[in-house]
Design a protein that fits this description.
Shape: globular
CATH class of the largest domain: Alpha Beta
Number of domains: 2
Number of helices: 9
Order of helices and strands: EHEEHEHHEEHEHEEEHEEEEEHEH
Largest sheet: 10 strands, mixed
Bound molecules: threonylcarbamoyladenylate, magnesium ion
Helix content: 25-40%
Length: 320
């Protein structure tokens, strides 16, 4: 398939073909409500190996398994009452549960890097759900970008970074949430937030009570998930966060009215709108005419926690 025809509208016919490609062990990029995923058959060692190779992702960083129903999730992992409650409240949606794997499932051991836990979610996007149902298997899908880069929220973002490595990119338009799912670890007695994301911590706590965050006064103690390297979500240009105004040569990503700015995450200071715009705007401002991207302070509540998490990693010192 030529690069020009890689991006496909998700018609019934295209979905059928995408499901066929997945079953044959190929990679298909698809929209979810959070970011675009790089999908592969979660039961196939070969497909999982292809995902790691395409993303140049470290093998110790496990993948999220996407399913269409809670019943399927229960076949793959052990659910306790907290998992049941969170699934009932937030699935389908931007919440990933890390649970203890069941023995003897069809899942490739490589999908969770050999750990005895597995990360599972039911995405809300109808294209994602249709693809999972039609492929008739769990679908492993990291964000469809090179490891360490900015996550894709449009089909053309995927073509830009992984165009040569996927068999097909299903175009579902812009992602509604724009930030990855919230990841919660339920394998221990205390629930732990591994990654803030599209469901606010406050909403999860309202459902199951206390959740440990590895944060003291907004400062992270240590990266929680195996894959949570500090530098991540990084555009080519350096990022400077909590900037009240730009310095000479910098692009300025504003928040709220009166901020001026090269672009504005949300004129009305709405964190949901800001989250949806964040990755696409970082990509737009990642141009040689700017020395860096300065970003306005973002309040640290609701989706602001996830936005600040991504900005902190985008601003972190880069590996050589
Ligand atoms: O919104 C999302 O979650 C998107 C869409 C495509 O679903 N996917 C996504 O995948 O963001 P990825 O691979 O970029 O991030 C998965 C995160 C990583 O931080 C990884 O370390 C963590 O989930 N994770 C996966 N399995 C885990 C496990 N068994 N234990 C702990 N953390 C796990
Ligand atoms: Mg990612």
């Amino acid at each position: 398939m030529s690069a020009r025809h890689l991006i496909i509208r998700p018609t019934r016919r295209a979905l059928k073909q995408a499901a066929r490609l997945l079953r044959a062990g190929h990679l298909v990029a698809f929209p979810t409500e959070t970011v675009y995923g790089l999908g592969g058959d979660a039961t196939s060692d070969r497909a999982i190996a292809r995902i790691y190779a395409a993303k140049r992702r470290p093998r110790h960083n496990p993948l999220i398994v996407h399913v269409a129903t809670t019943a399927e999730a229960r076949r793959l992992a052990h659910f306790d009452s907290r998992a049941e409650r969170l699934a009932r409240s937030f699935w389908p949606g931007p919440l990933t549960l890390v649970l203890t794997r069941r023995a003897g499932t069809r899942l490739s051991p490589h999908v969770s890097s050999g750990l005895n836990s597995v990360a599972i979610r039911i995405p809300a996007d109808p294209v994602a759900l249709a693809l999972i149902r039609q492929s008739a298997r769990p679908v492993a899908a990291p964000s469809a970008n090179h490891s360490g880069g900015v996550s894709p929220t449009r089909a053309h973002h995927v073509r830009h970074s992984l165009g040569g490595r996927v068999a097909m990119i299903l175009d579902g338009g812009p992602c509604e949430v724009g930030l990855e799912s919230t990841v919660v670890d339920l394998t221990g007695r205390t629930a732990r937030l591994l990654r803030p994301g599209g469901i606010a911590l406050e909403a999860l706590q309202a459902a199951i009570g206390d959740i440990a965050t590895d944060e003291v006064d907004g400062e992270e103690l240590h990266p929680a998930s195996p894959g949570r390297l500090l530098s991540h979500y990084a555009p080519d240009r350096p990022v400077r966060m909590n900037a009240d105004k730009p310095q000479a040569g910098e692009a300025y990503l504003a928040f709220g009215s009166g901020g001026g700015g090269t672009l504005n995450l949300s004129e009305k200071a709405d964190l949901v709108e800001a989250a949806a715009n964040l990755f696409a705007m970082l990509r737009t401002l990642d141009r040689p005419e700017f020395t860096a991207i300065a970003v306005a302070p973002i309040p640290h509540h609701g989706l602001g926690r996830a936005i600040n998490d991504r900005l902190k990693r985008a601003a972190a010192p880069r590996r050589a």
